[in-house]
Amino acid sequence: MGILKKLIAVLVILILVNIGFVLYGQASFEATIKTLGKAFAENNATEPVAKKLPENIRSYIQKSGLEKNPYKILALQLEGQYRNKPSSKWMKMHALALLRPSADMLWGIRLESNPIVTFNALETYHAGKASMQMLLFGIIPTGEIENSAFARSELARVLAYGAYNPALLKLAAIEYRAIDDRRVEATIRDANISATVTFFITPAGDIAEVTSQDRIRPLKQGGMQRAGWRMRILSYGEFDGLRLPREVEEAWIIDGNALPYSKTLLDSAKRL
């Protein structure tokens, strides 16, 4: 009985230490986000806009409410689920994104594998360079991706998230090509790289889906796989005067099969 009590006491101490580690790690991660967010806000140059846009893109921007509710930075908070592969269990996900009317992006993500173990990811894109850092408990590095292929993938993501960031879609750096009445191909050029996505727009003027062949799927042990990618927008909502995607599902397309890896719900958006 004495040994059992000791084992229980040790277990309780380990749990408390882990909880303290999580709380400290999360505080450290959030401090990093605030620091980077401040730098993100200060580095805010005005980009030239296009003189003419495709009608369905122009209609989407108009419907978003951007004209009456402009912004320099858009801060998004999202809740949802994430998994690395189809056989993995879904983890709770909390995310903060900072976007603006330029090819820039900052994401801070927290994944909860269970009530004690958390993983954090910090993703940035700026001036043709992208980085993703993975941190256990918010402070222990477990991986990092930073190369030209990943930069192109993240630039495609920046462009696709123009659905959240309608001011971006006005940039002169984006070249549009109408495929048909509902599909528009968009190519963005930044620094020395470019990336392409296709917007699927409904007759009502909503972006319903975005696809790309320029995304890179991170694999275990630092590997990467070029894969098709799809973002489906399941519903819209109004946030701080803007009509933005509310419920979104993202999936990798492998051998023609959709492998959903992220399901998010936009909790709030703030114009800054």
Characterization of this structure:
A hairpin with a 4-residue loop joins strand 7 and strand 8 (183-190). This protein has 3 helices and 13 strands; from the N terminus they run ααββββββαβββββββ. A 13-stranded antiparallel beta sheet has the order 6-5-4-3-2-1-13-12-11-10-9-8-7, with helices on both faces. The chain is globular and about 75 Å long. The protein has a single domain (2-266), classed as Clam (outer membrane lipoprotein receptor (LolB), chain A). The protein has 272 residues and is α+β, with helices and mostly antiparallel strands. Mean pLDDT is 85; it is low at 13-17. The chain has helices spanning 2-42, 55-64, 148-160; strands at 74-82, 91-99, 104-112, 118-126, 129-136, 140-145, 174-178, 183-190, 193-201, 207-218, 224-239, 242-254, 257-271.
Name the descriptors.
13 strands, 13-stranded antiparallel beta sheet, outer membrane lipoprotein receptor (LolB), chain A, alpha+beta
- Helix/strand/pairing category: alpha+beta
The neighbouring-strand order within the major sheet is 6-5-4-3-2-1-13-12-11-10-9-8-7
> What is the overall shape?
globular
Quantity of strands, as a count: 13
How many domain regions? 1
**Largest sheet geometry:** 13 strands, antiparallel
**CATH structural fold name:** outer membrane lipoprotein receptor (LolB), chain A
Strand content: over 45%
CATH class: Mainly Beta
The residue fraction in helices comes out at 10-25%
- Mean pLDDT comes to 85
What is the straight-line distance between the termini? 61 Å
Looking at the overall shape, the CATH architecture is: Clam
Q: What is the count of helical runs?
A: 3
Global Rg: 20 Å
**What ranges have pLDDT less than 50 throughout 5 or more consecutive residues?**
13-17
